[in-house]
Amino acid sequence: MHYEFTHQQRIAYFTMEIALKSDIPTYSGGLGVLAGDVMRASADIQLPLVAVSLVSRAGYFRQEIRDGRQVEHPDMWDPAKWAFPLDAKIAVNMEGREVWVRGWLYVLTGHLGGKEPIILLDTDLDENRPEDREITHYLYGGDQVYRLKQEIVLGIGGLRMLHALGFQVRQYHMNEGHSALLALELLRRFARQENEDENLLSYDIPMVRSVCNFTTHTPIEAGHDQFPYELVQNILRDFIDFNELKAVAGEERLNMTKLALNLSDYVNGVAMKHAEISRQMYPGYHVHAVTNGVHPYTWTSDSFASLYDHHLPGWCYEPQLLVRVDQIPDEAIWRAHRASKLALIERIKTLCGKDFSAEIPIIGFARRMTAYKRPELIFSDLERIRAIARNRPFQIVMAGKAHPNDEGGKQLIEMLHVHLGNLSGTINTAFLPNYDMDLALSLVSGVDIWLNTPLRPMEASGTSGMKAAFNGVPSLSVLDGWWIEGCIEGVTGWAVGNASDQANGDDAGLLYEKLEKTVLPLYHDDRSGWITVMKNAIGKNASYFNSHRMMRRYATEAYVR
Ligand SMILES: *Cc1c(COP(=O)(O)O)cnc(C)c1O
After folding, report:
1. Torsion angle of the four alpha carbons 459, 175, 233, 220, in this order, in degrees rounded to the nearest 10
2. Which CATH number fits domain 3-191+202-293+550-559: 3.20.20.70, 3.40.50.2000, 3.40.50.1380, 3.30.300.30?
3. Largest CA distance in the chain
4. Which residues line ligand 1 (CB under 6 A)?
5. What's the whole-model pTM score?
6. CA 367 to ligand 1 centroid distance, Å
7. Cα(418)–Cα(431) distance, rounded to whole angstroms?
8. Which tens digits make up the pLDDT trace of 6-60?
9. Which residue's alpha carbon is at the smallest distance from atom 2 of ligand 1?
10. Domain boundaries 302-545, CATH class
């Protein structure tokens, strides 16, 4: 059945989460959406990949908001509805017993007709103990032991599964450190004969490095998994020589990022600034920069897609064509935007009964709710924001999930509801529950201004602002991640503060000033000037910050070397 995928060599792309479609909850946020866009772009440009991930039967979670508090529900899905069960079955040894793993084949079919296989690993099998059956259930759930077992299934199990299915893999690509244990399986595969040469290590590290690529995604230390060796040894037993493992994964603890760095010849960060930060965090490694991009067709609203189809045919295969956006009349851009805006307004009405106006600009903010993203920044001074809105009105819509264990993030959601409530009467506000891919497209295309206020330099890249650009929506953002590269002040959008201000000092004051003196006056008083910025977001940013450019770079610089 899968011969159509095994007859040619492929790049194996390992990822803990992947956003295949809104109905399949095997993702939590940006990392998973990026993985999905990697595969969608590869399908479009006919780059042969195979993705390996976990089936996450209970998903991440479905978010309900009750009295301003996030309530989490399991988000069960049935893989049989979307994917084919594969016959192959492999085992990995944990705590001295076999844990059996099977796979589901999800065939990603792009809108240009290309196909890519996605293998979703599953331990929910009769032959496993009850606790082992749950290893692949909860995305980012459970404790450290649970996480390590998931990463064993993903890295070691995933590699064995590809082998059992007959895939011919030419290169491995680790999307973040979660899958770095695949390199341990490769070390074992490339173990040297004992006594071959007394001076050589028993594993052929250069051989492993030559087939591994690693993309690091976060400049936050806590974002990098680390496991105590006692725990690792208790689970993996004699799988690997621990003295040699410590030499490549850290002396104190098994650091998944170090392991991936030491066993990959090609390493990259996800924006220029992020690569620079990563070089500082891990001195001595050559960290390339491949700035992220988003998948054109997936992140463009219907109204803009038909506009591009008409004026710039071929944009889905070659998004650089969007540099010619000036071919499109201003009125057509405005009409396409208005269609997306009306659709969002209707959705807001359905989801929370609020009436937004199509004549007033909407500011959108949606991302993972966690401290460094500072969703509360715009509410620092409620009197000030009311005064700005009285002069030139605007509306605010927000969305985002907090990780179930991130109490700070959950409190942010609660606090946002209080602020949004306090502003109502002066400003239309809404918080839309259960941020997912589908809601993300509504938001990035339906708002007028995409707001982003992270604490520098914590935002490795960020991708939602790129999605907004595909829909002619400019960003108003702190200069961090991709926006350092994407912002041309007053041309493609606006900066809050400047990139060198490490203190992040008075970002709220700077945000109010930019909004009051520059952004809102342009929207309300100079429609043609506003549409020029919309066109620049498309022509200068969407044309560049897309997944096709990103994958063509991985293909020529990482996969073929
Ligand atoms: C794009 C997307 C993200 C990532 O957005 P950032 O700008 O990187 O914060 C997160 N969640 C969903 C559902 C998305 O579509």
Report:
1. -10
2. 3.40.50.2000
3. 81
4. 29-30, 33, 367, 435-437, 440, 462-464, 467
5. 0.97
6. 6
7. 11
8. 999 999 999 999 999 999 999 999 999 999 999 999 999 999 999 999 999 999 9
9. 30
10. alpha beta
